[in-house]
């Protein structure tokens, strides 16, 4: 059966005039109930007057503590202890001369939370602006409690928070809200950051989201230098990726110069060159046409190292020099290359001298050049 709705001449299923009659009758019932509740509270208060907070557990002049006396009264009249205890407290907050006819006991109970007596007694005499009488929701607003029917945005937010105490409910609500662009647009930047951090705690989610962010140049531009370094470090943990990236970076003169200023990096590069020389020697022995003839010679390890080094130098130069076609080096770059060429030329002269004479002494100039390497 469809729910009845309020129309211009009806409220629910009854006419406006009948509704007004029902309201008048029920107000009398509510007033009578309120007087009855105050009567119960007054009786409990007479049996056990309110005391200072610290004395609540002390013995009264009789045989019972306050709680035991109120509990006995509750059982004797057929009500719950909590109900009688609440009625006693409300009665203590509203002396008879300050109780207001026409204001429900529920409103008295809510406004009883106002600590200051003068403020409390004045409040019940002054309904909210624009209202003819106090209602439970208006009383809740007055004392800062959650209302049953939220009206303001803050009241609605409080109601949502209350309903979303359960984490499963909160998760569903959050997911629904985040799918609404207009809602997301109003979220503060710092709150968006916290949401993203929480949503990307799962590594798989983070891995799926990160590439999208990294493709957005405007986002990357806002990343701090330290964070960019961390990202590159993470992305280059794979050795193949690191090799490709490093090669590309070292082709940039400024980057290469700064990298070689680091002692550890320079040592690693030199070690890599030595290892590459060893590999080149092995390749020479396996692939060079003159390798069989050389293997037939009674040669020393030093001889093989020397021949391999020369082979590696020629091969490396053969790969690098063609890359200079149509390229103009800067003055600094030319100076560095000329310096290295001079070192190579002096080293070649030294090799020839050592091979022809067996003398491996190094003069001061050559020593300086070799130390510069």
Record keyword descriptors for this entry.
single chain, about 375 residues, mainly alpha, 3 domains, two-stranded antiparallel sheet, 20 helices, disordered N terminus
Compact description:
By secondary structure, the protein is mainly α. It is 68% helix and 1% strand. It contains 20 helices and two strands.
Element order: H for helix, E for strand: EEHHHHHHHHHHHHHHHHHHHH
Estimate the strand proportion.
under 5%
Distance, first to last CA? 95 Å
Shape: rod-shaped
Low-confidence stretches: 1-5, 54-63
* Overall radius of gyration: 46 Å
Number of discrete domains: 3
- Helix-strand makeup class: mainly alpha
Instruction: Supply the number of helical segments.
Output: 20
The main β sheet shows up as: 2 strands, antiparallel
pLDDT averaged over residues: 79
- In order across it, which strands form the biggest sheet? 1-2
Tally the beta strands. Answer: 2
Helical fraction equals 55-70%
């Amino acid at each position: 059966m469809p729910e009845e709705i309020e129309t211009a001449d009806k409220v629910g299923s009854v006419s406006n005039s009948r509704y007004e009659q029902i309201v008048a009758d029920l107000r009398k019932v509510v007033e009578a109930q309120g007087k009855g509740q105050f009567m119960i509270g007054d009786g409990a208060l007479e049996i056990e007057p309110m005391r200072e907070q610290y004395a609540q557990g002390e013995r009264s002049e009789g045989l019972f503590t306050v709680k035991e006396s109120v509990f006995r009264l509750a059982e004797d009249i057929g009500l719950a202890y909590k109900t009688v205890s609440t009625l006693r407290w409300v009665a203590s907050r509203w002396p008879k001369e300050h109780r207001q006819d026409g204001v429900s006991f529920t409103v008295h109970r809510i406004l009883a939370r106002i600590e200051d007596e003068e403020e409390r007694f004045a409040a019940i005499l002054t309904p909210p602006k624009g209202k003819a009488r106090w209602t439970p929701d208006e009383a809740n607003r007055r004392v800062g409690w959650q209302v049953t029917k939220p009206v303001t945005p803050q009241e609605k937010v409080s109601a949502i928070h209350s309903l979303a105490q359960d984490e499963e409910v909160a998760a569903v609500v959050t997911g629904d809200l985040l799918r609404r662009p207009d809602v997301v647009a109003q979220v503060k930047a710092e709150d968006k950051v916290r949401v993203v951090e929480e949503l990307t705690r799962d590594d798989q989610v983070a891995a799926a989201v990160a590439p999208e962010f990294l493709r957005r140049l405007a986002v990357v531009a806002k990343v701090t230098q330290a964070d960019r370094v961390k990202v590159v470090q993470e992305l280059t943990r794979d050795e193949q990726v690191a090799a490709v990236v490093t090669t590309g970076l070292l082709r940039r003169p400024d980057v290469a110069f700064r990298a070689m200023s680091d002692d550890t990096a320079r040592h690693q590069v030199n070690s890599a060159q030595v290892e590459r020389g060893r590999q080149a020697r092995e390749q020479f022995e396996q692939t060079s046409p003159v390798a069989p003839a050389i293997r037939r010679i009674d040669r020393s390890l030093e001889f093989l190292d020397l021949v391999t080094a020369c082979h590696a130098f020629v091969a490396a130069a053969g790969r690098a020099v063609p890359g200079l076609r149509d390229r103009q080096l800067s003055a600094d770059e030319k100076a560095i290359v000329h310096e290295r060429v001079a070192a190579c030329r002096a080293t070649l002269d030294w090799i020839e001298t050592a091979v022809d004479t067996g003398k491996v002494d190094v003069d001061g100039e050559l020593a300086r050049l070799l130390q510069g390497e």
